[in-house]
Design brief:
binds calcium ion; 3-stranded antiparallel sheet; 3 domains; D-Maltodextrin-Binding Protein, domain 2; alpha/beta; 40% helix; 5-stranded mixed sheet
Length: 572
């Protein structure tokens, strides 16, 4: 069985190898643009089944694309499909990854040499949409978007789609982030809990007890004083925290978040990084630091370094996202098959339940040039990925052809001109199907073929006596989408009990954010670290709040509220 190579298809929320992930340096496949559009006669509804339409496209690559034979970005299973099924020939005038793409995009905008279709980061999208340089695709979307595409893109009630509108007109399709399914959980070494006869904490006081025991009571039984109670990394002021070692799950115990914009019951939006609960949270972290529960080197450890400590069996608890079984925890159980990890709901320090924060992060918008004669092509192209990969009618064959080839591990989905994974619906569906199949209530032949892939991996792990060392991939899936995996906690605790809080601001930065935010973030991060390490008294938090407001915070707060009211005025 080539299970190792059967890299999970998608599940963007949880996967380290994410379809939408930006790659490093990519290659460009041509730059000449030349002609504007070509192909069939006018009439925007006539692109399919008949005359062929050629459209130029500026596309951001992941940088990880691998091709078979003589295929390339202009000729592959997706471009041939667009041609055969839609009569659309895509000509990639720019196809690059990372900074290379950003540079080419900046140049194309500066020289007003934009292709028919394009990938745009939020800031550039907003700029071009407001300048009238993008096609209004409102009607094209209404007419041509398949039910599945609409269902996928409007999964959040149309919130992210609304960010692609100006004056009620739609100018692009957002690459959705899997908000409201990606949030902090408390990950704990359960073998250490067992060794010390402890239970998983349900309150902050209990968490402190466990952290103390993990630090001082030799949880790994090697007779050495060599373990930390709870792991944190250096990036405190960061959306989603940085995982592993996020602070957002910890701050949430005090009703605070480092980087979130939260709406109150009166509809007012405020920045939670200056919330009074944050002062209590930082004071508590300072106490833990003083008590030796936190690695004093945390301020110079990034997620990779913390991951190495976790993998080496030095850390017994941390806050992190639902996909944590894939990273350091996997390395840890591979190094030490006795090790085991389980996620738990985050704990509260107050009488209120702790509510994890989720962030919307739209990486890019797919848009059409205002001069493009066939803007509807954008929508038709977007339908394809849904049909081939995300439809309940998808088969093993379509998944292998348009997704990951199980024999080579090549992810053909990376070639898609527009790919969007309904990660949350998928996780919900697959979780349920896998659980039912494990319980004998469903047959593996009857569940979604992608769910069946994960089921088989999990079943293999369970049948082999749960040998984590021998089947770390099976352990991964079990801990993520198995009956007691992280997804179970998210839907059966966080969602079922209405605990998730969504940060409501996303998209292009506001004007004052563009000019002032990076220095404000820096000041915030320094204040937090100094308070934790005791070089500043917790009471200096109040001075920080005052400075933050004066240095642009009050202005940004006004801008965020204006943006929200303008963007979602009709929606709410
Ligand atoms: Ca020890």
């Amino acid at each position: 069985m080539k299970i190792k190579k059967m890299t999970a298809l998608l599940m963007t929320a949880a996967m380290t190898v994410s379809l939408a992930a930006c790659g490093g340096s990519g290659q460009s496949t041509g730059t000449a643009s030349g002609t504007e559009e070509a192909g069939s006669t006018e009439g925007s509804a006539q692109a399919d089944n008949g005359g062929n339409v050629e459209l130029t496209y500026m596309h951001k690559l992941n940088g990880t694309e691998k091709y078979v034979g003589s295929d390339d970005i202009n000729n592959n299973v997706y471009t041939r499909c667009y041609q055969d099924e839609l009569g659309i020939t895509l000509k990639y005038t720019i196809a690059a990854a990372g900074d290379d793409y950003t540079q080419k995009l900046t140049m194309a905008i500066a020289s007003n040499d934009l292709p028919d279709l394009m990938d745009l980061p939020p800031e550039e999208f907003s700029e071009l949409a407001n300048a009238g340089m993008l096609a209004d695709i409102t009607e094209a979307y209404d007419t041509y978007a398949s039910d599945l595409l609409k269902e996928t893109i409007e999964v959040d009630g149309g919130v992210q789609l609304a960010s692609a509108k100006v004056d009620g007109k739609l100018y692009g399709l957002p690459q959705l982030s899997a908000a409201d399914g990606t949030c902090d959980l408390l990950w704990i070494r359960t073998d250490w809990l067992d060794n010390l006869g402890l239970k998983a904490p349900t309150t902050m006081d209990e968490l402190l007890e466990v952290a103390r025991a993990f630090r001082y009571d030799d949880p790994d039984g090697n007779g050495q004083d060599d373990t930390w109670g709870i792991g944190f990394q250096k990036d405190i002021v960061k959306e989603d925290g940085a995982s592993p070692g996020s602070y957002e799950g910890f701050f949430a115990a005090y009703g605070a978040y480092a980087k979130a914009w939260v709406k109150d019951e009166n509809g007012q939006i405020s920045y939670s990084g200056i919330n009074p609960g944050m002062k209590d949270a930082l004071a508590q972290l300072n106490q833990m630091y003083e008590d030796g529960l936190i690695d004093p080197e945390f301020g110079v450890k990034d997620t990779v370094k913390l991951g190495e400590d976790i993998a080496a069996g030095k850390v017994g608890m941390f806050y992190g996202l639902e996909g944590m079984p894939w990273g350091a925890c996997k390395s840890n159980i591979e190094n030490d098959p006795e090790a085991d990890w389980q996620c738990y709901p985050i704990v509260s320090a107050t009488a209120e339940p702790a509510k994890p924060i989720t962030y919307v992060r739209i990486s890019r918008y797919y848009a059409a040039n205002a001069k493009c004669e066939h803007p509807e092509a954008l929508v038709k192209i977007a339908n394809v990925f849904q049909d081939k990969i995300n439809s309940l009618d998808a088969t093993e064959e379509t998944l292998n052809t348009f997704g990951v080839d199980p024999s080579t591990g090549i992810n053909f989905a990376e070639y898609a001109a527009f790919a969007m994974d309904p990660a949350i619906q998928k996780c919900n569906t697959y979780y349920k199907e896998i659980k039912e199949t494990l319980n004998g209530e469903s047959k593996v032949e009857d569940i979604h073929p992608e769910a069946a892939r994960y089921y088989n991996v999990i079943k293999n792990f369970l049948d082999n006596g749960s040998d984590k060392g021998a089947d770390s991939l099976g352990w991964n899936y079990y801990k993520f989408i198995g009956p007691e995996g992280s997804w179970n906690t998210i839907i059966n605790d966080y969602k079922a009990n209405d605990k998730l809080v969504q940060s409501v601001f996303f998209g292009a930065p506001t004007p004052t954010m563009s000019t002032n935010l990076s220095s404000m973030d820096k000041m915030q991060a320094e204040t937090y670290v100094n308070i934790i390490m005791g070089t500043q008294e917790p009471d200096t938090f109040d001075d920080f709040v005052k400075s933050w407001k004066e240095l642009g915070g009050d202005q940004i707060t006004t801008e965020v509220n204006d943006w929200y009211n303008t963007t979602f005025g009709e929606l709410k």
